[in-house]
């Protein structure tokens, strides 16, 4: 065999063929990695969306509970049901309108009598005229489709003492759901959100219009037997990532399913498989073109001198190996003859595309990480608050007390601790009921927060026991402030259906001194001062001193 034939054949098999196979292998590896990145992105997006939905529903439940707790509304509803007098109806309307003015996205507030018949509504053309009677006070959240839009309805039974006086229903514009359905950030061109409920047959029904079915809201259903469809898997409680799944429109999709058991809702983030694979096909065409160029280049260069052939090919091979390993630091510079320059430009284009894709994916991961951190911050805030008074709870108090104690010891700053306990609080609960006691706790907590500084810590550490951490403040000023607060509490007048009452509060104060050997001793000093305040007749501020111990 002639030398030129040996050079051509050798160059083709040694250089062109391995390069072509390597590009195909790299393309498959990149396609697999791209699919994994799409799955991770869908998982992160669906988790964030689930937390957003739960946070919005929790706000609706809180607003419902807040309005339902209004005693005068329940009293007037009971009297209106019994007598039908307009005086009671006007009182109810005024209360409902005040409540509606203070809430955003609220469409209507509706009251029903104990049989479930609509009695009063702030929205004259409300569609619901009758509710299914129930006696428990749990809040029920449902989605409804009214006047061409999705509405969130919350319902709860109303009680006055032991009497069941009716039902409260709030309807909200579901902006948070509509925003979710329209926000396709991170879902590409074909992706979308699905939110599914169960109908009376147990089949999945969509809660808002869909990209491929604008009339799907509360009309498009998926049979519960279709367990290969992502929305049915979500409603079955399976939180998984699916490949090659079939969506409602018959498209093959990548999908991440989430289940919200509190509401029996299913949530799906999906993107068409064709869009995910498009990345692979684009690179495949580039690889085919590059392969043909390599073969032609190998044949032409094989006729020439071997040394002249080897240099540019080896240089190109080295650079492509770096790109395959993810090293984009040294851009390809076209050198050598024309064919090699063109081939280099093709590789540069592919390297640029890979570099941009990596940057985009990194930016997306950082954004999702930031959103998850913000969601975790909201959850952390919820975990340190007392649900009744919205004051800090005992867990947060212990952490901050330890921090402030150590800081005061280290820098020799002033620090005071106050334990406040409501006098005869059990009698309030026994005489007027726990709802009245809850009102007292809320009002006293609100007063303490209003009168203390932003740097002070106000916490509810027990049933009727509050604790204040007051750093860097003059003891005499603290005594004056606490005595003024004590007087304001004593002047509070609480009205209930069983009559009105007042309440007093005792305060035990300890200032950081030499007898506060540690955190436990410091807190015990305040507790001893509270004991002396109770022992000396209650409704007073008692400051700990070594002589009073």
Report on the structure:
The structure is a single chain. Helices cover 52% and strands 20% of the residues. With 549 residues, the protein is an alpha+beta fold. The protein has a 6-stranded antiparallel sheet. A 5-stranded antiparallel sheet has the order 2-1-5-4-3. A hairpin with a 4-residue loop joins β13 and β14. α1 packs antiparallel against α6, α1 packs parallel to α7 and α7 packs parallel to α8. The longest helix is centred in the first third of the chain and has 66 residues.
Summarize this structure briefly.
The chain has 549 residues and is of the alpha+beta class. Helix content is 52%, strand content 20%. It has 13 helices and 18 strands.
Q: What layout of secondary structure does this protein have?
A:
Elements: H1 3-68, H2 71-83, H3 86-101, E1 106-112, E2 118-121, E3 140-146, E4 149-160, E5 163-173, H4 175-182, E6 192-198, E7 204-206, E8 221-222, H5 230-235, E9 241-246, E10 252-260, E11 265-272, H6 273-303, H7 306-324, H8 338-383, H9 394-411, E12 415-422, H10 425-432, H11 434-451, E13 457-460, E14 465-471, H12 475-491, E15 494-496, E16 499-501, E17 505-511, H13 519-535, E18 541-543
